[in-house]
Structure formats: C-alpha cells, structure tokens
Amino acid sequence: MTGVQTCALPISPLLREALEDDHWLVRCEAARSLAALGPQIVPDLQRALQDPDARVRAAAAWSVRQLGTDAKAAIPDLRTLLSHHDWLVRSAAVYALGKMGPETVPDVLAAIDDEDWGVRSAANAALRDLGPEAESALAEALQHENEEVRATVSTALKRIRENKPREPVPP
Known about the structure:
The structure is a single chain. The protein has helices at about 5-10, 10-20, 25-35, 40-50, 55-65, 75-80, 85-95, 105-110, 115-130, 135-140, 145-160. Helix 7 runs parallel beside helix 9, helix 9 runs parallel beside helix 11 and helix 10 (about 135-140) packs antiparallel against helix 11. It contains eleven helices and no strands. With about 170 residues, the chain is mostly helical. It is elongated, with a radius of gyration of 16 Å. The longest helix is centred in the C-terminal third of the chain and has 16 residues, at about 145-160.
C-alpha cells in the first residue's frame, strides 16, 4: 500500500458521505479525491458518474481515468456518458475510456465525430493513451471513411509506437 492510500483509507467514509452532500462542489471534490483510495472505490465512483450535476460526473470520470484498467467495471457507465448533453462530461468519459484498454477503441473512435471540438480533442488524446495493446484495433481504423478519423488514428499509432504519452489537463 502506498503512503497516500494508507493515509486516505480512514477518511473513505467521509468521502463517501461527501458524495451525498447537497452542494455540487462538495460532491465534485469528493469524486476527485476518491481515486487516491484505489480500485476498491470504483462502485462509489460509478454512483458519482450518475450524479445530477454534470461537473460531478466529469470529476468522477476523471477519477475513473486515474484508476485505469482497475476501474473496468465503470466502462458501461462511461459509455452512457458519451451521449450526455454536456461536452465536459463527454470529454471526461472519453479520456477515461482511453485508459480502459482495447475493448474501448470503438467508443473512442466514435467520439472523434462528436460535434464539440473539446470532445474530439479528448478522443484524439485518448487514442494515444490506449497503448500498444490497442494497436491492432487502431490499425483497422486506418480504413475509416472519415479522413479526420484516419489522420487522428495515424497520429495515435505513431505516438504509441514512439511510446510518448501525453497527459491531458483535468477538468
């Protein structure tokens, strides 16, 4: 266990309680803090992904992203957020899906066609995050009908092959 997790575990009941607070900002900060507690907190993050406030959902998606493949149970919730009306929620969901492995390649590719530039940018970064295990799925996407998708996938493949990940700025 890391020092962060050792210190954070005793306060997990407080963070869980904060996820139910009346004020969105308290819930948002709780969702952001939960990732430090490790994978056992995924069910709490899944509930936060369904919060009525879009900012809390985005923060929860960001925390899921930090947990990466340890949070695969949240993939269905993240997929649901891809159709959310708020671009910030969609982009946070795409970023998180980029850390979940090759099975989320189709979800991330679909986000490249999003109407919002921020979501398309998140999809571009998420493709790079998918890493070498997604290389074959991305190689197939080079045949996509959309030129922007092909260009994005080509860049992602190049970055994966060069092994130079780029960290996005949290919401």
